[in-house]
């Protein structure tokens, strides 16, 4: 896709290619579409973070990954 870099946002980081969104105590899998937080799955949060990650990805993509 856009590459194999990553950008840091708050306490989490987005890894391009692998499709993992790590934030706090949970992680979001892009391929499966599951947001794992603690011991339960929040599908509504998954959809919200899905839209947010795409927007944030377009913004932070302007900066080169190190």
Beta-strand percentage range: 25-35%
- Identify the overall geometry: globular
Give helix and strand order, one letter per element, not per position.
EEEEEEH
The number of helical runs is: 1
* Helix content estimate: 25-40%
Strand order of the largest sheet: 1-2-3-4-5-6
- Describe the largest sheet: 6 strands, antiparallel
Structural class estimated from helices and strands: alpha+beta
Task: Provide structural commentary.
The chain is of the alpha+beta class and 66 residues long. The protein has one domain (6-60). Helix content is 27%, strand content 33%. It has one helix at residues 43-60, and strands at residues 6-9, 12-15, 20-23, 26-29, 34-37, 40-41. The protein has a 6-stranded antiparallel sheet, covered by helices on one side. A hairpin with a 2-residue loop joins strand 1 and strand 2. The longest helix has 18 residues, at 43-60. The chain is globular. It starts with 5 loop residues before the first strand and ends in a 6-residue tail after the last helix. The model is unreliable at 1-19 and 21-48 (pLDDT under 50).
């Amino acid at each position: 896709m856009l590459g194999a870099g990553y950008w840091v946002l708050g306490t989490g980081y987005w890894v391009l290619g692998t499709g993992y969104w790590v934030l706090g105590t949970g992680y979001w899998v892009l391929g499966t579409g599951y947001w794992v937080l603690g011991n339960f799955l929040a599908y509504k949060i998954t959809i919200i973070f899905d839209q947010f990650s795409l927007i944030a990805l377009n913004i932070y993509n302007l900066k080169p990954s190190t």
